[in-house]
Amino acid sequence: MNTRTDAALLKFLDTEDGKNLLAGFRRATDILKTEQEKDGPRTYSHRHAPNLRIEYQEHKLAAAVARAREETAEKLEKEDFSGAMRSLGKLCAPLDAFFEHVTVNAANANLRVNRLRLLAEVRRVMMGVADFEKISTEGGGIG
Architecture of domain 3-134 in CATH? Predict the structure, then answer.
């Protein structure tokens, strides 16, 4: 990251959307790390299968991820780092709803892997803008 990206990230993290999205990112990352120990590191590297989305919140999150992927790419190309952060902020509500209403570790193995792949897509989109894994838990600084 550069200083402009860092400044945009820190400003974003100071908002309610920023705090909530960081919490969602951490939750997704924790789940993925735990499940990758069982399934192997490459299991979630592919995109999810749209035909395996059965819950409304899965469809909403998938649409939000696709939109964020497109919007952040456009903003980053123009070096509009604040705009890219705002685009990521649109993931907040769909990600929260996903966690609230969808059982990630479903009994059906195909649904489980697909849901984990969707969470991995969230992580990839976010990491494409900034390294959210380097944000310290105390004070929200970049560590």
Answer: Orthogonal Bundle (1.10)
